[in-house]
Amino acid sequence: MALLQIRNLSVSYHTGSRMVTAVNGVSLDVEEQDSVGIVGESGSGKSTLAMAILRLLPGRTARVEGEILFGGQPLLELGEQELSRLRWKELAVVFQKSMNSLSPVHRIGAQMADIYRLHEKGLNKKQLRERIIKLLESVRLPARVYDLYPHELSGGMMQRVSIALGLMHRPRLLILDEATTALDVVTQGQILREMMELERELRIARIMITHDMSVVAVACKKVAVMYAGHLVEFGPVQDVLRHPLHPYTKGLLQSLPSFKGAKDNIRGIPGSLPDLSLPVQGCVFADRCEHAMPVCRQVKPADTAYSVSRRTACHLIGGEEHAAQ
Ligand code: ATP
Ligand code: SF4
Ligand code: MG
């Protein structure tokens, strides 16, 4: 059984008289020790999907439907107490601005110690300090960071602290939401390599949300492509890069210089995301798809298995007999 099983998940935000469906019928599995990249343009629902898994959506405005099983437990049905047992310890997250959640007036070490004690009690002060310094060193930060305040760290150092926090309790699943996006390419590459090494050692699975397909190419085994709240393609990264199935994935790859060579070959996908407050009729990508057929405007393409490991939702590909799940 997969570590994380997402089944037909939909999330809509209700603000005033407007309802926006940010995630629409997504099904996805993450195996133990797997690494899954989630890509898609801004507003496609990536963070909303992550927040639903983490149960961090605003309860008053977000409506969630579907099912999420984590280690067999129904995440959406757990009470606060059960959830707090899972957070950090089994399910951890690093956001782009995770460091903003640290207090500016307390030293890094003291704050990490507080988070450590949430799940592991019984260490004395000296042992705790040693444990945290070891953790800082595992993300290649010097021991002196323990005594620094957040504002005394560079952006790269702050992200390393955030990743150290995410790894602190050796979670079974780590979710990174644009966690390395703001860093320069060299620092980003270094952090990714170190993180992958630690993951292997600690047997951690990872979901990595990013705009950057080249990050997914080096740091993930599988990729899920989202468009306007829908999961339009899923499969092993190398297969999807070499032979994308969905027209949106093809467009995404064509707009990347590293995959198409010369800079003047870069072209974005014309048009923009549809209005997420309107019901979807037919294929959600139809307005921007150069292959759109009459059926695309009338019938929603099913999330369909193309092979054992690949899925896509497009009328050009697959057949009803292969319908996924
Ligand atoms: P980005 O790449 O810019 O981070 P994303 O793929 O993570 O984008 P989301 O942040 O999940 O996208 O947003 C999906 C849709 O849901 C957007 O239309 C957004 O405006 C809307 N949305 C997100 N959070 C809320 C919220 N708290 N209340 C209302 N609408 C929201
Ligand atoms: Fe394009 Fe039709 Fe496929 Fe949608 S279903 S991506 S409109 S070809
Ligand atoms: Mg986001």
TrEMBL record:
<keyword id="KW-1278">Translocase</keyword>
<feature type="domain" description="ABC transporter">
    <location>
        <begin position="4"/>
        <end position="253"/>
    </location>
</feature>
<dbReference type="Pfam" id="PF00005">
    <property type="entry name" value="ABC_tran"/>
</dbReference>
<dbReference type="InterPro" id="IPR013563">
    <property type="entry name" value="Oligopep_ABC_C"/>
</dbReference>
<dbReference type="InterPro" id="IPR003593">
    <property type="entry name" value="AAA+_ATPase"/>
</dbReference>
<keyword id="KW-0997">Cell inner membrane</keyword>
<dbReference type="InterPro" id="IPR003439">
    <property type="entry name" value="ABC_transporter-like_ATP-bd"/>
</dbReference>
<dbReference type="InterPro" id="IPR017871">
    <property type="entry name" value="ABC_transporter-like_CS"/>
</dbReference>
<dbReference type="Pfam" id="PF08352">
    <property type="entry name" value="oligo_HPY"/>
</dbReference>
<keyword id="KW-1003">Cell membrane</keyword>
<keyword id="KW-0547">Nucleotide-binding</keyword>
<dbReference type="InterPro" id="IPR050388">
    <property type="entry name" value="ABC_Ni/Peptide_Import"/>
</dbReference>
<keyword id="KW-0813">Transport</keyword>
<keyword id="KW-0067">ATP-binding</keyword>
<dbReference type="GO" id="GO:0005524">
    <property type="term" value="F:ATP binding"/>
</dbReference>
<protein>
    <submittedName>
        <fullName>ABC transporter ATP-binding protein</fullName>
    </submittedName>
</protein>
<comment type="similarity">
    <text>Belongs to the ABC transporter superfamily.</text>
</comment>
<dbReference type="InterPro" id="IPR027417">
    <property type="entry name" value="P-loop_NTPase"/>
</dbReference>
<keyword id="KW-0472">Membrane</keyword>
